[in-house]
């Protein structure tokens, strides 16, 4: 087995990429997703994101797997925050950037970080041991170029556990809120599992939106018009504009996705009197829905909950999806039935002194995260079992 670095998906080629990932349905493993990032200039020159894909091959050069990594000159768009680490390096006159992240750009979604036809769902224990092997290659590549660190973000918990024997690697946890399908028949059945008070609150939220004369639609990417993508992109940018920022992704990125992987995209749109006022963009595969981008042109009470959560849950129930990852943060998800889950990241810090200090930080942080996970779990809306 051997490995080679590439700094563009086109250097690997779609045929070889597809041969490597095989039947993998994870949206963020698809060639079209990464090609859209590059061709739309959402990553690359001037963005602080420089791709370096690691292609693993058999001895006969047949593709086995791909690991997506990026050289970063900042820490934006990652959602595992290490700004304080970078500041500490700077205070000591040391260089933190560039660093390497092993992740999906702009996407705090837990999932595969090695895409392979040998393990399309990421649950083959024997194959999963490739993670520590590739970590050694990451470390070696970093040492050759004197990079400060590499960071594996939002990896699956069972994959994070594989790194435990290597004491030079730091394990960090955080908390997100995900929805799980417990064999609910439909939305009414789902809400029937809420306590009476919480069920009334959820129904009242949905009624508020309806009484405002707002209707919602769900459209697959294959059926989106250019005008609908334009409107969504306006909503997407408006979310960042409210914080005095600009969205990371370009209009071309979303257009390419709709054209090339539209069967894995869902757009929820909200209308008042046939005029679109809000939109939410999601990805999905055979198992999960991934809520990613939202924006609105008119503020309406509870519309965010409806467009980003309730509509997504209904879609999961209709399609038989088992899991809904709506994105990072947000305690407001709890009341809608999203359960606290741990997310995991692995960090290699080259400098031994900083590694020890950051390791102590991660341990202290983990204790607080576990307490937070326990406390938020008690706030879920479901009926208490007798």
From TrEMBL:
Gene3D superfamilies reported for this sequence: 3.40.630.30
Listed InterPro entries: Acyl_CoA_acyltransferase (IPR016181), FemAB-like (IPR007434)
Sorted alphabetically, which Pfam families does this protein's record hold? FemAB_like (PF04339)
Know the name of this protein?
Answer: Uncharacterized protein
């Amino acid at each position: 087995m051997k490995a080679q670095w590439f700094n563009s998906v086109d250097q690997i080629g779609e045929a070889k990429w597809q041969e490597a990932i095989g039947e993998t349905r994870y949206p963020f493993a698809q060639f079209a997703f990464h090609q859209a990032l590059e061709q739309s200039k959402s990553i690359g020159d001037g963005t602080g994101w420089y791709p370096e894909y690691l292609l693993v091959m058999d001895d006969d050069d047949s593709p086995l797997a791909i690991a997506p990594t990026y050289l970063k000159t900042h820490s934006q768009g990652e959602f595992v925050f290490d700004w304080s680490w970078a500041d500490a390096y700077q205070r000591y006159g040391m260089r933190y950037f560039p660093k390497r992240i092993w992740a999906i750009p702009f996407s705090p979604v837990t999932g595969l970080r090695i895409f392979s036809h040998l393990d399309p769902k990421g649950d083959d224990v024997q194959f999963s041991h490739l993670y520590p092997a590739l970590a050694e290659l990451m470390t070696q590549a970093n040492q050759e170029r004197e990079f400060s660190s590499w960071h594996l973000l939002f990896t699956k918990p069972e994959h994070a556990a594989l790194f435990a024997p290597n004491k030079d690697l730091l394990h960090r946890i955080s908390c997100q809120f995900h929805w799980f399908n417990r064999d609910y028949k439909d939305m009414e059945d789902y809400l029937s599992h809420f306590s009476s008070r919480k069920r009334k609150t959820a129904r009242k939220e949905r009624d508020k939106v309806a009484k405002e004369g707002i209707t919602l639609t769900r459209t697959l990417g294959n059926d989106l018009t250019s005008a609908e993508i334009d409107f969504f992109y306006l909503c997407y940018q408006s979310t960042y504009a409210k914080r005095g920022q600009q969205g990371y992704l370009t209009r071309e990125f979303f257009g390419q996705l709709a054209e090339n992987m539209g069967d894995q995209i869902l757009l929820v749109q909200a209308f008042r009197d046939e005029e679109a006022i809000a939109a939410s963009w999601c990805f999905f595969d055979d198992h999960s829905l991934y809520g990613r981008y939202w924006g609105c042109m008119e503020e309406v009470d509870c519309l965010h909950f409806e467009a980003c959560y309730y509509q997504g849950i209904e879609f999961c129930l209709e399609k038989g999806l088992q899991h809904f990852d709506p994105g990072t943060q947000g305690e407001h998800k709890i009341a809608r039935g999203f359960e606290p889950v741990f997310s995991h990241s692995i960090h290699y810090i080259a400098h031994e002194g900083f590694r020890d200090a950051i390791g102590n930080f991660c341990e202290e942080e983990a204790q607080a995260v576990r307490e937070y996970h326990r406390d938020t779990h008690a706030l879920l809306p479901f009926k208490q079992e007798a």
